[in-house]
Amino acid sequence: MKIQIYTDGFDGWAKRARERAKAMDKSRAISPSRGIAFENAADMVRLLTPARLDLIQTVKKRQISIPKLAASLGRDPSAVRRDVDALEKFGIVSSRSVVNPGHGRMRMVSAPVRIAISAEI
């Protein structure tokens, strides 16, 4: 599934919803996607910091545990965990708990292969 991130707020979301409804009325196929709309570019930038964008790029390549993700990014695991939590609230990344034989459980993080950002200032 593709995630599309916009900075046009409710008005942009409403316009896209009307376009999708018209396409459905005409029986046109609609590709599955998930849209995230921010009120403005500043709100998006607060979520998508450079460190979080690096995190997204890494987990797009493969599913990875938080400790390994932190090591590959050269960051503290607790900071990476906070970033994963913030991105997961918006559905940009997802995580699941898996059994780590002999060590309890670990959290695996993944992201969709396609993420598109459309921003206007």
Question: Could you characterize the architecture of this molecule?
Answer:
The chain has 121 residues and is an alpha/beta fold. It has a single domain, classed as Arc Repressor Mutant, subunit A (Orthogonal Bundle), CATH 1.10.10. 47% of the residues lie in helices and 24% in strands. The chain contains 5 helices and 6 strands. The chain has a 3-stranded parallel beta sheet with strand order 2-1-6, covered by helices on one side. A 3-stranded antiparallel beta sheet has the order 3-5-4. Helix 1 links the parallel strand 1 and strand 2. The longest helix has 17 residues. It is globular, with a radius of gyration of 17 Å.
Keywords:
5 helices, alpha/beta, 3-stranded antiparallel β-sheet
The biggest beta sheet is recorded as: 3 strands, parallel
Estimated structural class: alpha/beta
Mean pLDDT: 90
CATH superfamily: Winged helix-like DNA-binding domain superfamily/Winged helix DNA-binding domain
The number of distinct structural domains comes to 1
In the predicted model, the low-confidence regions spanning at least 5 consecutive residues are: none
Number of strands: 6
Shape: globular
Give the SSE order as H and E letters: EHEHHEHHEEE
Q: Tell me which CATH architecture applies here.
A: Orthogonal Bundle
Q: Give me the number of helical elements.
A: 5
Q: Note the gap between the termini.
A: 27 Å
Find the CATH topology. Answer: Arc Repressor Mutant, subunit A
Q: Which CATH class is shown? A: Mainly Alpha
Strand content range = 15-25%
Q: Order of strands side by side in the largest beta sheet?
A: 2-1-6
Our Rg estimate from Cα atoms comes to 17 Å
